[in-house]
């Protein structure tokens, strides 16, 4: 029988303890990082709910809107709006940015922008918003990248749309709001509750939009009337005049051919659908187009506009303060010009995108 020296037993226990503990250290660090990041997104949701309660109980004083200067006789496709890009995006979480830099070192500088609340953006005369949308469980969340870059001024879609309706209630007679939904499912492995976009998810999205916006929603059915399709309606009578569209909201499915095909399958005229789609001239469902490079896409923007489509382009992509991008966007004839730096909160160097004279709303005939 061998009797082990107590000191040897103690040393062996320490070795076993360290052998077990060392692999747990990175897992513990990862768990703490996840808890920290998720806590920040929960804070965002609580902050939005608190803001909504405050706005409902103590609405800001009414002000004169620049919308009043736009004649009711102007058709929707003759209207030009300044929009915000990724309108939901709050300031990046420092920990998340560090994690992003590990995978994509060139990415953090492209994320150096943030936005005010949706209500504040609308109150500063922005009339078009872009929201990145992801299915999570039985709801839809607004997040750029799951976990590592999902800080948001409006984390939940239904609440985000309700916030827009609340602003509309406080500011009657505004020109129509155009909300572009970019449906994303990249980096889904970072979110165990993420779901894929399919026909069922798109039907649920339509229902969420209808429920949240109610009679504010202007749909393809409203445009089409007795025409055979959206394009047919545009060709026959053109887009409606603003006099019939004030206080309404149009929702647009961002350009994505796979999702568009699912959305219009068996229904190219968009009967009963809540969203407009993006397509080339001649497509039955085509009403909008996303052409983000005002230089490279200049010829197509002119072609699509001539066909009556409403076109969105970008002024400063990727985040840039070179005014040449804005100048090209203005010269392109696009209806919606998206920016990361609106006049209400310009870049630190003073750069901001506007439609001339600090304006965010005007007509395409206005110099």
Topology:
Layout: H1 6-57, E1 79-84, H2 94-103, H3 118-123, E2 128-136, E3 139-142, H4 157-170, E4 177-183, H5 199-213, H6 220-224, H7 230-237, E5 249-253, H8 257-264, E6 277-278, E7 286-290, H9 298-306, E8 310-314, H10 323-332, E9 336-339, E10 361-363
Parallel strand pairs: 1-9, 2-4, 4-5, 6-7, 7-8, 8-9
Antiparallel strand pairs: 1-10, 2-3
Descriptive notes:
The protein is α/β, with parallel strands linked by helices and 367 residues long. Helix content is 37%, strand content 14%. The chain has ten helices and ten strands. The protein has helices at 6-57, 94-103, 118-123, 157-170, 199-213, 220-224, 230-237, 257-264, 298-306, 323-332, and strands at 79-84, 128-136, 139-142, 177-183, 249-253, 277-278, 286-290, 310-314, 336-339, 361-363. The strands form two sheets. The chain has a six-stranded mixed β-sheet. A four-stranded mixed β-sheet has the order 3-2-4-5. β2 and β3 form a beta hairpin. The longest helix has 52 residues, at 6-57. The chain is globular and about 90 Å long. The mean pLDDT is 90.
């Amino acid at each position: 029988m061998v009797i082990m020296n107590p000191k040897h037993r103690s040393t062996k226990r320490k070795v076993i303890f360290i052998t077990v503990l060392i692999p747990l250290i990175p897992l513990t660090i990862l768990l703490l990082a996840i808890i920290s990041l998720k806590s920040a997104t929960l804070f965002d949701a609580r902050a939005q709910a608190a803001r909504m309660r405050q706005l409902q109980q103590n609405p800001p004083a009414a002000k004169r809107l620049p919308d009043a200067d736009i004649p009711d006789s102007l058709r929707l496709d003759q209207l030009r709006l300044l929009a915000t890009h990724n309108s939901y995006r709050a300031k990046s979480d420092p920990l998340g940015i560090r994690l992003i830099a590990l995978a994509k070192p060139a990415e953090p500088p492209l994320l150096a922008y943030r936005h005010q609340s949706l209500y504040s953006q609308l109150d500063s005369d922005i009339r078009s918003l872009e929201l990145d949308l992801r299915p999570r469980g039985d709801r839809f969340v607004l997040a750029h990248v799951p976990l590592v870059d999902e800080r948001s001024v409006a984390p939940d879609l239904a609440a985000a749309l309700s916030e827009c309706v609340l602003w509309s209630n406080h500011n009657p007679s505004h020109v129509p709001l155009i909300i572009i939904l970019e449906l994303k499912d990249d980096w889904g492995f970072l979110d165990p509750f993420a779901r894929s976009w399919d026909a069922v998810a798109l039907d649920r999205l339509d229902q969420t939009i209808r429920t949240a916006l109610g009679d504010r929603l202007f749909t393809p059915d409203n445009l089409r009337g007795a025409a055979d399709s959206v394009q047919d309606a545009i060709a026959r009578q053109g887009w409606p005049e603003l006099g019939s569209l004030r206080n309404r909201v149009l929702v647009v499915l961002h350009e994505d051919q796979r999702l568009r095909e699912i959305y219009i399958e068996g229904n190219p005229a968009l009967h009963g659908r809540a969203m407009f789609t993006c397509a080339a001239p001649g497509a039955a469902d085509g009403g909008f187009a996303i052409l983000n490079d005002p230089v490279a896409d200049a010829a197509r923007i002119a072609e699509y506009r001539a066909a009556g489509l409403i076109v969105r382009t970008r002024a400063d992509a990727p985040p840039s303060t070179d005014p040449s991008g804005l100048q090209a966007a203005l010269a392109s004839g696009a209806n919606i010009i998206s920016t990361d730096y609106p006049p209400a909160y310009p870049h630190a160097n003073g750069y901001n995108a506007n439609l001339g004279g600090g304006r965010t709303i005007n007509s395409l005939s206005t110099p």
